[in-house]
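Two proteins were folded this term; both appear here.
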Amino acid sequence: MPLGKSLDNILTDYFGQSDVNLQFDQKDSTVGKELGIAEIKIENIELSPFQTRSFFEEDKIKSLAENIRQQGLIQPVIVLQKKITESTEPHYVLLAGERRLRAVKYLGWETILAVVKTEDSLDEKQQAMISAMENLQREDLSPIELSQTFKMLILTQKIDEEKLASMLGASVQYVKNYLRLLTLSVPVREALLEKKIGEGQARYLVNLSEQEQYELLQLILDKEMTVKEIVAYLKDKKEVIPQPKVNGIGHSFPAEVINKADRFASQFPNSKLKCVGDLDKGKIVISWG
């Protein structure tokens, strides 16, 4: 992911230190003691509620498992120890390292080396930040998972798109472009998540109705349409279909969008609805009284 800042710098800015990135050798006892490294039971670890990654390629997990089998677990996972009573075993929430956890599970390990944090040392905003930064390090993070990570950061850190862009060292438009992918219909998001279509192809489906998205998605999959072919298809379709008008002003918004706007406008006395523009740019104006 082409961020303007390195993840180490982002974490340093946020925490005032970069040790949560944990790029160190487990044999360094000084670092280990300082961070509270322990061997913990895998069965006592649950996944983070802030995890936005949902797709893990099995072949890559197996490859990582083989690497761990040969070299050992160089980088511990990060967990948060949940508050417990004296009569129960410690339980943990995984903050970073799900690929490593899946790999050692594949190897049949019962325990894993972990950096143990406490609920007193990390609040929910910090927990969410660690989980997000772990994901943003992955080159194979899908566009949808990246979009979900951006949205999660905006919600948990209570920031806007501009602040997030500044935090990441990216442009505001870069952040907005990814967040727009979350408006895609479920079938398109799933196809993008499973890498059946690419990010460039998906972007041209954003402003279409759900039915139009479904129809175009099937064409893309059946005919293996390129971005150039998708652009030509949408251009031809736009020229063929007569453009509807509202109050005499032409536009090319999907009918379902106009219907929703019309229903909303009807709640106001003596309302008038005006629509101007096309799928790329435009406005809907409601006046009343």
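Next, the second protein.
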Amino acid sequence: MLGEKFRFRFAKTGTLRLLSHHDLMRCLERMLRRADLPFKCTAGFHPTPRVVFALSLPLGVVGKDEVVEIEFTRPLDARQTLAALQAQSPAGLTFTRVTVVPLTATATPRRVVYHLPLPADRVPAVAQQCQHLLASDQLWVDRLKPAPKRLNIRPYLRKLAVVPVQVAEQLEPVADPVRPTLELDLWVTSTGTARADELLKLLGVADQIDAGAVIERVKVELRDEVPNPDPADGPPDGPAQTQPLDPAALARLVQPDEEQPAAAVWGLSPAGPVVE
């Protein structure tokens, strides 16, 4: 199929998960140039490719089904363009599929799903804490960016649960091919969302990241890819529920970087979050 604007799905895995969002954008520009693809650029003194990611991936998080849209100066064949990009991709960056979208289309995220493997001995406590959070009317977290405030993230929790997940193929057989996994199913809106690192703290499993566990974003659902959404199962409407941040909490958030624990800055991108 021919088109001028393509929506690509891709995976960012392995050590490439440590590549920042800005570096990923620069990498993609080099790939487009090496593939000799006629991409469109923005106007102005510093033109850049007309490339839009649906949602930036936090540093250190594996992305299994990410979304990027790219505009070209003339109609191209979708399959050939996918193959050309894949041929220039570094190890850990895999373009899996492509669709042609109208030039007016925008990849607006509706929902994301994260997975974190859990040790068997942590499952009962985590499952109980998931039920506790879902039963709460409000869940307040402190945010520093884009402006200091307290945010109620409870409306953005669709599902928190421990689920069995099939282990990916290994070089050697594993004793149990199914492992317990924490699943964070979150709504994304233009006014707010919950962050995975915040929920890991609330669930008491942030230490698993320090122990070497890797969190994965396994799904990014777009609004225009859900043609007939269930009215009873959708993201919240209206503005985010916020409160002013008290001075003591603000002082903790703005303390010098060398005094902050690693978990305090885990997952932050150089430009800050795409949504609050």
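The longest helix spans residues 21-34. The CA atoms of residues 92 and 216 lie 14 Å apart. These notes refer to the second protein only.
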